[in-house]
Amino acid sequence: MSLHQETPHSPGFIRKYIFSEDHKTIGIQFLFSGMIFFGIGGLLAMLVRLQLAWPEGNIPWLGQWYPKSWGGRMSPDFYNMLFTMHATVMIFFVIIPWLTGAFGNFLIPLMIGARDMAFPKLNMLSYWAMIPAFVIIVASFFVEGGGASSGWTSYPTLADASLQKPASAAKPGEAYSVLKDDAYNSPAAPGAGMGQIFWLTSLLLVGLSSMMGSVNYITTILNMRAPGMSLLRMPLTVWSLFITAILQALALPVLTVALILQLLDKLIATTFFLPPGGISFGNWHTVPGGGMPLLWQHLFWFYSHPAVYIMILPAMGIVSDVITAFARKPLFGYKPMVYSLAAIAALGFVVWGHHMFQSGMDPRLGTGFMLATILIAVPSAIKTFNWLATLWESRIRYTAAMLNALAFVSMFVIGGLSGIFMAATPVDAYFHDTYFIVAHIHYVLFMSSIFGVFAGVLFWFPKMFGRTMHEGLAKVHFALTFLFGNLTFFPMHILGIGGHPRRYYDPTIYQYLEHLQPLNQFMTICALVLGAAQILFLVNFLGSLVFGKKAGINPWESNTLEWTVPSPPPHGNFPEPPTVERGPYEYAVEGPADFLPQAKEKPPEAGA
Amino acid sequence: MRVFWFLLFALVNLACLGLFVVSPWLGWWLPKNIASFGQDVDNLFYLILAATGFFFVVTQSVLALAILRYGERPGEKSRYTHGHTGLEITWTLIPLAILIYLGFAQVPTWAKMKYINVESWFPIRYSGKNLQQDQSICLVARQWEWRLRYPQGHIPADQNQWAENGDPGDLHAVNELHVWKNSQVRLHLKTEDVIHSLFLPNLRLKQDALPGKTMPVVFQAIEANVKWDPVAGHLVPLGPGLEWEMACAELCGGQHYRMRGRLFVHESKQDYEKWFAQALKNQRLRELPKQVAAREGGNR
User: Fold this and answer.
1) pTM to 2 decimals?
2) Which of residues 512-571 of A touch B (CB under 8 A)?
3) What is the pLDDT of residues A380-397, one digit of tens each?
4) A479 in contact with B at a CB cutoff of 8 Å?
5) For A367, which residue in chain B has the nearest alpha carbon?
6) DSSP A575
7) Which structural domains are found in chain B, ordered by start?
8) B164 to chain A nearest CA, in Å?
């Protein structure tokens, strides 16, 4: 057996944990940085909720931290910054990095039986492109004018107007130029100056990172599967990450272009998004443009609608694997599950216009987008019914990971169904930009995706760190999150039906909204409990790294390849390359054990 | 614990359902509708609510029941099955049929709202030419107010030209949208600076104002909230609680939330004309000193 007794590859500390090319370490790096930003994004949300519940009140002790000029009360521009950065952080620095960065990196090679990613150096770079993005987005809170405050959608001309020479100051025939002294300030909003420039730069780097990841995932999955691991034997987690990577690779260039165009608008006063007549803020007049604000919306949503699926598809894959493992039952309808993932992704490219029904886009075009959007409910329904059918006549083990996965199914139903209201153009005319959409997005992205992440972390924690997380604590965290999550986000539907617009600093100045204020206060109290409950998860996660019960190779009696190697797996993952004999969901089989792992059983070694 | 998890899932979802049941009774619901197409919009909302409500109850019940019934039991295994083609086809085709119906059910109302004459079952034929119109109003959004312009005679000869340049005889107002009951109104919606969005909850109406563009917005209010009091010479509300508001729905900067305007629907065209005459007179009185000052400044 001398072949397997090569000197083990043992890099130094820095190569092993910091500039690591090992996909497992990179995945864990994404997981940890995501947790830090989850905390930041969560705190921003708490401040948003405090303002909404008591818009006029001085919040005890918090008021002392505000600048004196605000009079002990949050300023409206600061409030706009809060929800802008909350969404930005949660989407680009938490959910996408967690799902594709952490799970994608950690799981893909392990689940397909590969030693590592196809391009380990590129993989390392994909994380290290995130570091400047982290620095820039955090720094943006402290620049003049504060962080970006034009919404995570950054619509021009609010986001991209830059302070230019007034028309009267220009001599005839002279080219307009940006004023030197306060060139980067914006006449539209304080946060639309330097804060917006930082925002754009940071997101460009995040995009770069995601692009490097996507190329790597696609190549790895296509080229490096173990013998016998045909495409239709891949676990759904890998399928979902594969389809997500394709989505990202196709959609990201469009966002990148849009970000660069807006950056040019801001930095060198190009006018990609400025209308021909220019715009004016009181006595300030911009140069005549030649562009179109609507262009940004098309480019932005051409990426950002697929991005919504980038943020949910991997969670669907994870949940499918967790549910089968703890229901001890084969996945119901493997092929329909794969095809419906692909269908969601494909339809995802032709529905971006549903964000723009009221934008001034041709109403006939809206009808087309509406029909395409409504059709996405079909593959979503197929997935839901297959999960339910998997659970039917199963034998469920109520682990914390399983409960989070079940919660995903339950909450995804709500998030999916509420989407149909906004897909319908006439109904959307009323619901567009109200709290109904805030409810919808939080049911999809928090109540679904994040439950998927919790399920995944609980499920693969033993493989990542060789220990299990504390079940009891994880269950308490789950129960609190499920209960208070619903209490926080469900009443938002009702606010939306009442016509409560989103992004309002103080809704109480409207008579038709006044009576909804008790709901706002109730939701804020629940949101604070929800936020506090996440500390349990953090404590459990960090504590289990040190004190967790030692886990064996296959603590959940699961079938997929990662459960055939030690926990945590060594560098190079598989001491011997595995051979795959069957699909990933052979549970409830005949015999003493009720599961049949994918890998071919190794013949007992002579002399062992 | 099995029963506990069942109860958690079942009760939370039941509470969600319950909130939708009690909210209308508590007044946490759609504001009063006053638009000609508003009832259609509300009906579509209820149609979707019924369809989604049905699937909500079915799926959540199945999930909760599965959690209750199928706990692990020693010595027992799950049923071994990889799926069922018939079931897959069923639960693909049934939602597909319902969703296609829901989709096409939206089209006539959408056409009505956007003033498209639907000439076929699929709305590809478009004609906005023969629309009836009683009133033209130019509405210019800016940070952070709504500026309105009302023409004399209700409809100017060349609407586009008027929306662009205005007329010296126009009546100007800020944050106050005046129309009369059953008047077919066409707003010329513009913005000076950033994107704003006109939101009139009672009219079930929302339209973004795009820099560089003039967006047409068409509506007809079928209920009045003010009438002209000839004795006092001003408008009086028709009843308590008939305050209809106008809001901005697209983030437009710091004071976004303060773009509050009000909608006045006069009882009759005559009422509106009386208000218009009075308001125009007031406007000229206000402008007179300025004009005099300007003339004197010019002579000096």
Assistant:
1) 0.94
2) 512, 515-516, 519
3) 999 999 999 999 999 999
4) yes
5) B107
6) S
7) 2-69+91-113 (no CATH), 135-299 (2.60.40.420)
8) 12
